[in-house]
TrEMBL record:
<dbReference type="InterPro" id="IPR016181">
    <property type="entry name" value="Acyl_CoA_acyltransferase"/>
</dbReference>
<protein>
    <submittedName>
        <fullName>GNAT family N-acetyltransferase</fullName>
    </submittedName>
</protein>
<dbReference type="InterPro" id="IPR039968">
    <property type="entry name" value="BcerS-like"/>
</dbReference>
Length: 373
């Protein structure tokens, strides 16, 4: 059967993953409204601020969308790192060689035509959004902001000449079985006792101020990390601004040291069970469903934590995680998901091990050189 590749059909691209994986899989779609505005070049600061470019492709068989892929160029990243790299993202499809190859060819051709010499993914669309292709743990449901892809995605990439690199793991912590006190050494206790550190919850009344301080802390703390490009205020707000409606002030914190932003730990209630239930589309019953979920939900997810570089190795990271673990338990949460940690980040891996984290999913980036035209 002929595979028809279309460009820019956002609705078909959204439906393609649902069609490919089915309602019984652990796959959770993004919210349609988020997906739609992400690929609207008039709204996404990634494009409007000149940081990058992208194209969205969907594969159709007999008129039905059965796969999708995004091709993107992060121009700001290439300028910073002196590279000519492109990326694929949102790669989901039925288990079919023709469909997978047609989508990969579309992305590779788009990037090669623009002078890119390598392709790597998934990046959805940047390193500060969902990344990776799942390589193990397929039967386990993802938390919010975690990637999930079917086993055949990695197989099709390997068959098409892509190599797995940058191994990562996501984690799950049973809060009532963990031992957060193991995070406390002399440095962490000193931080908790030091009145120069002021701990501020992220409340709706001060949401934008705290969010901007959290961005500054992220950009400073991650400045030397591979692939990191600091998000601008507009990019960060575009990605995180909707958290205001779901934030739980008891579990997210911005820490100040002598009045200056010092550390941030961003945790939110896990919305994936609700998003899966409604298929990613918010209808008239959404407010009722959200309230019901809010009162019954016992799952949270740690999106990220960061400490400014001048306070690295002072014990603030461990102190923040300790306080957050206690706050989560007191607020009634029973399970905490942790987004990816790369294998070479031994310090973070040791930290989550201390609180009893168990591996949830295994992921890799997949990369391939491109022959430019």
């Amino acid at each position: 059967m002929t595979i028809d590749i279309r460009e820019g059909d956002r609705k078909s691209a959204f439906d393609a993953a649902l069609n490919a994986y089915g309602a019984d899989s652990p796959y959770v779609p993004p919210l349609w409204s988020d997906f739609d505005r992400t690929f609207d070049p008039a709204k996404n600061p990634f494009v409007t601020e000149g940081h990058g470019r992208y194209a969205l492709f969907s594969a159709h068989r007999d008129g039905r969308p059965v796969g999708r892929i995004a091709a993107s160029i992060h121009d700001a990243s290439n300028r910073k790192h002196g590279t000519t790299n492109g990326a694929f993202g949102f790669f989901d499809c039925v288990d079919d060689v023709e469909v997978a190859d047609a989508l990969l060819r579309a992305a590779e051709r788009w990037l090669a035509d623009r002078g890119m010499t390598a392709i790597t993914g998934n990046f959805n669309l940047t390193a500060m959004q969902q990344i990776g292709v799942m390589t193990d743990g397929f039967d386990k449901a993802p938390f919010t902001d975690m990637m999930w892809s079917a086993p055949h995605i990695a197989r099709h990439l390997a068959r098409a000449g892509y190599k797995p690199v940058f191994p990562m793991t996501t984690f799950e912590i049973a809060l009532d079985q963990g031992h957060p006190e193991q995070l406390l050494g002399d440095k962490q206790r000193a931080v908790l006792a030091d009145t120069d550190f002021v701990w501020q919850p992220i409340k709706r009344s001060a949401f934008k101020v705290r969010l901007e301080d959290a961005r500054l802390i992220l950009n400073d703390g991650f400045a030397e990390n591979p692939m990191f490009v600091p998000p601008t205020a507009a990019e960060y707000l575009f990605q995180a601004g909707d958290m205001m409606w779901i934030i739980d002030k008891r579990i997210s914190t911005v820490v100040y040291h002598r009045g200056r932003p010092a550390g941030a730990i961003i945790a939110i209630p896990d919305l994936n069970p609700l998003v899966k239930l409604v298929g990613g589309r918010i209808g008239l019953s959404a407010p009722f469903r959200f309230l019901k979920h809010r009162f019954s939900n016992t799952r949270a997810v740690l999106i990220y934590q960061s400490v400014c570089r001048n306070l690295h190795n002072r014990g603030l990271n461990g102190a923040m995680l300790y306080r957050t673990a206690l706050a989560l338990r007191e607020a009634g949460y029973r399970t905490l998901g942790g987004t990816w940690i790369v294998d070479v980040n031994g310090a973070s891996l040791r930290q989550v091990e201390k609180v009893g984290a168990r591996p949830l999913h295994r992921l890799h980036l997949f990369t391939k050189p491109l022959a430019t035209s």
